[in-house]
Specification:
Radius of gyration of chain A: 23 Å
CATH architecture of chain A: Up-down Bundle
Order of helices and strands of chain B: HHHHHHH
CATH superfamily of chain B: Cytochrome c oxidase, subunit III, four-helix bundle
Structural class of chain B: mainly alpha
Helix content of chain B: over 70%
Number of helices of chain B: 7
CATH topology of chain A: Cytochrome C Oxidase, Chain A
Strand content of chain A: under 5%
CATH architecture of chain B: Up-down Bundle
Radius of gyration of chain B: 19 Å
CATH topology of chain B: Four Helix Bundle (Hemerythrin (Met), subunit A)
Strand content of chain B: under 5%
Oligomer: heterodimer
Number of domains of chain A: 1
CATH superfamily of chain A: Cytochrome c oxidase-like, subunit I domain
Number of helices of chain A: 17
Number of domains of chain B: 1
Order of helices and strands of chain A: HHHHHHHHHHHHHHHHH
Largest interface: A-B, 40 and 34 residues
Shape of chain A: globular
Chain lengths: ~550, ~200
């Protein structure tokens, strides 16, 4: 590697564009800077929502009034949900790592519409601002839960309007990013990169982008209807005026279930990148992963009814939705099988991103299988709206997307910042976090099965024991988060500088450009001839 | 940095955006279908309350404006800037006339108290409440799109005047035209659903 350390251009971090200082960031159309803008925004709001979660778990450490009353608890779980869902996991991996690495991984200089890309960050920020005003203005923070179920969302005196409108505005950001990514992937792949030579993270971003385009308008119009319901009284969801609240649930979940796949697909993409690199082995069943990605994106559209098994639907609708839900499990399981098969007989290199990826597999399996318990009609009736559901979706959304996010952050960190982080601290942070995570969410399965409902600040005395374990777990997990963040923030500023192009031995294009990348990523657009995960050179070395 | 230009990519992006618009209105059509099947009689009577002549005039206006915007693109492709500007101006004017008609049409409904939240409507029963709720919401969202279209046309006219849009680079006219055809298309569905089906 004679080319190492011979950077011809300034990195994107140092490049002086039209504007100086902070304006050089918030007005930059460079996809890498926009990715980092999203990252900083998300880390800030994640910390906020995690603290809210911690307060809720502290309230639940004992029955009755511990540190807050019912109204505070209701508004806190609403805010926790809105921030975590709309501000963090929905834009999540595509907005941060998709923006930063999609163009580089497909051999492009930027996304197709760089200015629209910047616009979507601004729209996102404006949406966040609108949501936050709901906390300070009007008659108290909203207490509906992030789902804004009718008819309560237009009956409650609390300040629901800005929260709903903010979520609507953020939808635009999501749509614009989706359009940008689809056009980028169609039009800007490097010469020679046929569809089946494209790395898997871009593939999952492609599936995600289609869901963003086709599902987000549905929530957009639904939220507008809630606004019209509150301000004008059009009556579509109001039984008193002839409307049907169940129709609201349908419209809401037609978006919000595919949104779950907006969250998890890119996470699967990250895992598909990390596992081959640290196993030094080509991904097992590349085509199967691609197909299952698109299958999840497609079938994920037709399963929304499984959120409403107890709401009132015809029997035929019930078992159709249940059956389709089981169908989605198949492509997910194919992926898990492929990841495990990739590791089999690989030459495993244990580093922080790999720890996160493997623990992802563990928690994703628990989350996925508990999803099947909820997808079965009979068990669902027993478990609906209990802590079992809370445990299930935290295992998928936090355990799935969150772990993959951490894996991606540790995997691409040296490339993004040109600095190394301390791996001992990073691994320690992972260990503490993982233990805390399990201790926080596993007891919730038990509580749910024994009948503890979700969204109450109080519970019966017989649930006390498991709740203590869960609340202590929350504190341990937050300690883990603190270690991880402190290590990364310190390393981004003072870590050992590196301009090593290929930190981990990856084969995809981002490991062939400068560290950190230059403004235009490539001096010369590469021509692709090989599969993205070609480790044949490595196995030859091993065989010698 | 070299300027990246990809007209096909730009048009592709616009088509994707049109998909999102279709889904947005698509969900409203679903709501319409649900409530029409629940209250067929009230929807029939509600439709008779609407002014078919006014709706028909607006339909013609939108169809003609779709034609003029398409012609303005051809004019630009042939390099006739003056004719292009005239045709874009005509489209803009037609869009404004559409909204003026809408204003008078809505005004009449307000006079009779056929507006969501009014006491008159409360007395007329659930089906009528839902019909007029849908009527105002769907034509309202459509009118909002006309307003956005008007903004776009002004923007494009300025661009043509400044010479940013010219004989070899007319993607702005093309994409605005695509958007305008979409707005037109939605109306083509709204018109029979509210005014004509009895």
């Amino acid at each position: 590697m004679s080319e190492e350390n011979t950077q011809k251009h300034k990195s994107f971090l140092e490049y002086q564009g039209k504007y100086k200082g902070i304006l050089g960031w918030i007005l930059s159309t460079d996809h890498k800077r926009i990715g980092l803008l999203y990252l900083y925004t998300m880390l800030f709001f994640f910390s906020l929502a995690a603290i809210i979660g911690l307060l809720m778990k502290t309230q639940l450490i004992a029955p009755g009034h511990t540190i807050m009353g019912p109204q505070t608890y209701n508004s806190l779980f609403t805010l926790h949900g809105i921030i975590m869902i709309f501000i963090i996991v929905i834009p999540g991996l595509p907005a941060v790592f998709g923006n930063f690495f999609l163009p580089i991984m497909i051999g492009a200089k930027d996304v197709a519409f760089p200015r629209i890309n910047l616009l979507s960050w601004w729209v996102y920020i404006i949406g966040i601002m609108i949501v936050l005003t709901s906390q300070f203005l009007g008659d108290g923070p909203p207490d509906t839960g992030w789902t804004f179920y009718a008819p309560y969302s237009f009956r409650t005196p609390t300040n629901v309007l800005p929260a709903v409108f903010g979520a609507f505005v953020m939808g635009f950001s999501s749509i614009l990013t989706g359009i940008n990514f689809v056009v980028t992937i169609h039009r800007m792949r490097a010469p020679g990169m046929s569809w089946l030579k494209m790395p898997l993270f871009p593939w999952t971003l492609y599936g995600t982008a289609w869901i963003q385009i086709l599902a987000t308008p549905v929530i957009g119009i639904t939220l507008l209807l809630i606004i019209a319901e509150r301000t004008l009284g059009i009556g579509f969801f109001d039984p008193a005026l002839g409307g049907d609240p169940i129709l609201y649930q349908h419209l809401f979940w037609i978006y919000s279930h595919p949104a779950v796949y907006i969250m998890i697909l890119p996470a699967m993409g990250v895992i598909s990148e990390v596992i081959p690199v640290f196993s030094r082995k080509g991904i097992y069943g590349y085509k199967a992963i691609v197909l299952s990605t698109m299958a999840i994106a497609f079938v994920g559209y037709f399963v929304w009814g499984h959120h409403m098994f107890t709401s009132g639907m015809s029997g035929r609708a019930l078992y159709t939705f249940s059956f389709l839900t089981f169908l989605v499990a198949i492509p997910s399981a194919i992926k898990v099988f492929n990841w495990v098969a990739t590791m089999h007989k690989g030459s495993i290199h244990m580093h922080t991103p790999f720890y996160w990826a493997v623990s992802f597999l563990f928690v994703f399996m628990i989350g996925g299988l508990s999803g099947l318990v909820l997808g079965s009609l009979a068990t669902n009736v027993h478990l609906h709206d209990t802590h079992f559901v809370v445990a299930h979706f935290h295992f998928i959304v936090f355990g799935g997307t969150g772990f993959a996010f951490m894996s991606a952050l540790h995997y691409w960190f040296p490339k993004m910042f040109g600095r190394k982080y301390d791996e001992v601290w990073a691994n320690l942070g992972w260990g503490v976090f993982f233990m805390g995570f399990l201790s926080l969410y596993l007891p919730m399965f038990l509580l749910g099965m024994r009948g503890m409902p979700r969204r109450y600040y109080d519970y019966l005395p017989e649930f006390h024991g498991a709740n203590i374990a869960s609340s202590l777990g929350a504190w341990v997990m937050v300690a883990g988060i603190l270690i991880i963040f402190a290590n990364l923030i310190w390393s981004a500023r003072h870590g050992k500088k590196t301009s090593e192009k290929n930190t981990w031995g990856g084969k995809t294009l981002e490991w062939q450009v400068d560290t950190p990348p230059s403004l235009e990523n490539f001096d010369e657009i590469p021509t692709i001839t090989k599969q993205p995960y070609d480790y044949s050179d490595h196995s030859e070395k091993l065989n010698q | 940095m070299t300027i990246h230009r990809d007209d096909l990519g730009d048009k592709f992006g616009m088509w994707l955006f049109i998909f999102t618009e279709l889904l947005l209105f698509g969900m409203l059509f679903v709501v319409y279908a649900v409530y029409r099947s629940m209250h067929p009689e009230a929807f029939r009577i509600g439709g008779q309350e609407l002014d078919v002549a006014m709706g028909a005039i607006n339909t013609v206006i939108l169809l003609v404006s779709s034609m003029t915007v398409a012609m303005s693109l051809t004019a630009m492709q042939k390099g006739d800037k003056t004719k292009c500007l005239q045709l874009l101006g005509a489209t803009l004017l037609l869009a404004v006339i559409f909204l003026v008609n809408k204003y008078f049409e809505w005004g009449t409904k307000f006079e009779y108290g056929l507006v969501p939240g009014s006491e008159t409507l409360q007395e007329l029963g659930h089906g009528t409440i839902l019909f007029f709720g849908l009527y105002f919401f769907m034509t309202g969202v459509h009118a909002l799109h006309i307003l956005i279209g008007i903004g776009l046309f002004i923007f494009v006219i300025v661009k043509v005047k400044k010479g940013d849009v010219h004989k070899t680079d007319y993607i702005w006219i093309e994409n605005t035209g695509l958007y305008w055809h979409l707005v037109d298309l939605i109306w083509i569905f709204l018109f029979p659903l509210f005014y004509l089906i009895h």
